Amino acid sequence: PNLRAGCMMADMADEDAVATAIEELNALIGTSGRSGCPLVPVTYVNSTAAIKAITARAGGACCTSSNVRNVFEWALRPKKQGGGGGGKILAIPDQHLGRNTAVGMGFGEDDCALYDPELPKGGLTETQVQAATFILWKGHCYVHQVFRPQHVAAVRKRHPGIRVIVHPECPREVLAAADAAGSTAQIIRAVSDAPAGSSWAIGTESNLVNRLGRQNPDKTIVLLSDGPALCVQMARIDLPHLLWSLDSISAGTPVNRVTVPGRTGQYARMALKRMIDIKAVTKLTPSDR
Question: For position 36, what pLDDT does the model report?
């Protein structure tokens, strides 16, 4: 409804840079031994159609924060077992989602390498690339960078016994201090299913936390940070724009129609279909603290 509403995290990866990264990394990986296993890109659904298409052409899939672990496991599973056949994953564009998922799967942070698209070869050496299982694009969600480990300590002091859950787009040290992590859907389900009288501090976008508080008046629900965590882009999709868009569709003159070129759309759908075919995790991921 509003073409000014985008995603700053998605903007941190563009088509040419991702294509260059895949080419550079494949060259650094080489062809011998375990290091010669294919690189499989896994792209967050918060990305452009062009990058989704590149992902599909390279044998990868899209993911959501609900099914990212299962998509990662698919990517590393041999093709004979129905997987992506990869030995390494390029996680685009959110480094924190990639790192947190890798650790949740039992890998260490030293199994991850950070690819900076502003630097030649991502700022990585051949040794670093060959040693890593997860290569993380240097991108992030600015909303979830608001949260800090000290917020976790402070809210526990103010509310003894409170349960702290955060979105996996938060930095690793925040997840390590929290009780659990989960996608938007997983957070909503956990809080909604919780018993009356329970207390929750939630590390994600402020409007969602406030809405959960209104929908669950029998529970204590607070924002994890001491200041707002607002997504300006999401706020641009407001009711006036939505009504305007629906009215225009009803009148047969839709506004702000987005058209994706044929080949790009074809491959982007392929990456999305792989994502949809891989089931989501419904429960929160416990912290390893």
Answer: 52
Q: What is the pLDDT of residue 289?
A: 63
Across 194-214, average pLDDT: 97
Share of the chain above pLDDT 70, in %: 97
8, 43 contact by CB (below 8 A): no
Listed in sequence order, the residues at least 6 apart from 179 whose beta carbon sits closer than 8 Å to its beta carbon are 163, 164, 165, 286, 287, 289
Structure tokens at 76: 């590393």
What is the bridge-based pairing of β-strands 180-181 and 285-286?
antiparallel
Distance CA(155)–CA(153), nearest Å, equals 6
- Domains, the chain, in order of start with CATH, read 10-140+266-277 (3.40.50.10800), 147-228 (3.40.50.10800)
Query: Pick the residue with more confidence: 113 or 31?
Result: 113
> What is each CA distance from 92 to 18, 108, 184, 197, in whole angstroms?
8, 19, 19, 39
H or E segment to which residue 113 belongs: strand 112-115
Q: Give the helix/strand (H/E) hosting 264.
A: helix 262-277
Specify the residue for token string 């991108």: 139
What number of CA atoms fall less than 13 Å from residue 216's CA on the CB side? Answer: 24
pLDDT in the model for residue 280:
86
| Token code pair at residue 264 | 């790009």
Over 70: is that where the pLDDT of 74 sits? Answer: yes
Is the bond preceding 93 in cis, omega lying within 30 degrees of 0?
Answer: yes
Exposed, middle or buried by CB within 10 Å (0-12, 13-18, 19+), for 116? middle
